[in-house]
Amino acid sequence: MLIREERPADAAAIEQVTVAAFANAAHTSHTEQFIVNALRRAGQLTVSLVAQVGEEEIVGHVAVSPVSIASSSAAEGWYGLGPISVLPGRQGQGIGAKLMTAALARLQEAGAAGCVVLGDPAFYARFGFVVRAGLVLPGVPAEYFQAVCFRGAWPTGDVSYHEAFNATQ
Predict the structure, then answer these.
(1) CA separation (Å) from 69 to 43, 103, 115?
(2) Are 115 and 148 a contacting pair, CB within 8 Å?
(3) How far apart are CA 134 and CA 86, in angstroms?
(4) Closest residue by Cα to residue 82 from 164, 149, 168
(5) How far apart are CA 102 and CA 83, in angstroms?
(6) Alpha-carbon distance 114 to 130, whole Å?
(7) Which residues, given as ranges, of the chain have pLDDT below 70?
(8) Any bridge partners for residue 51, and if so which?
(9) Which of 46, 137, 158, 164 has the fewest Cβ atoms within 10 angstroms?
């Protein structure tokens, strides 16, 4: 398996992987594929990696985009991870973990201050994500919103994702 940067020709396969990965997910609006496409159109995919098997088959994808944090002096250089998608038949094989590790490494290499994620605490804790008091995604249960700080002080305030996260088509 190869983890590599997204290429323009990968967009349709990434969409298919994303739709399949979230098809039976309990806590989703089923708009993840629209979010990835909107982030791409807006030029906001800071990191967009695919997991490729063989010559062509894309089995996973991870997107990372900038976030805004209100009311904090330490808010520069923060990013949001997600969506992250792995084909259902390939889940449980470590593909998501490899995508996570590669995406976080890319952020650190680029000098990012930190990264936030909305998702399963048990999964993301393995990568250093923690719930951080004062760092809030309004409208979601605090235990599902986590962050990892790479450098500098922890920011505080409300986090906002790019408007592409409101995409519905």
Answers:
(1) 20, 20, 11
(2) yes
(3) 31
(4) 164
(5) 14
(6) 12
(7) 72-74
(8) 3, 60
(9) 158
Residue with tokens 């923060």: 78
Q: Which residues contact 147 (CB under 8 A, 6 or more apart)?
A: 114, 115, 116, 117, 129, 130, 132, 135, 154
User: Distance of alpha carbon 157 from its chain centroid, rounded?
Assistant: 20
Q: Give me the DSSP letters along 75-124.
A: -TTEEEEEEEEE-GGGTTSSHHHHHHHHHHHHHHHTT--EEEEES-HHHH
The per-residue pLDDT for 73 is 66
Q: How far apart are the first and last CA of the chain?
A: 31
Contacts of 1 (CB under 8 A, 6+ apart): 51, 52, 53, 59, 95, 98
Peptide bond into 155 cis (omega under 30): no
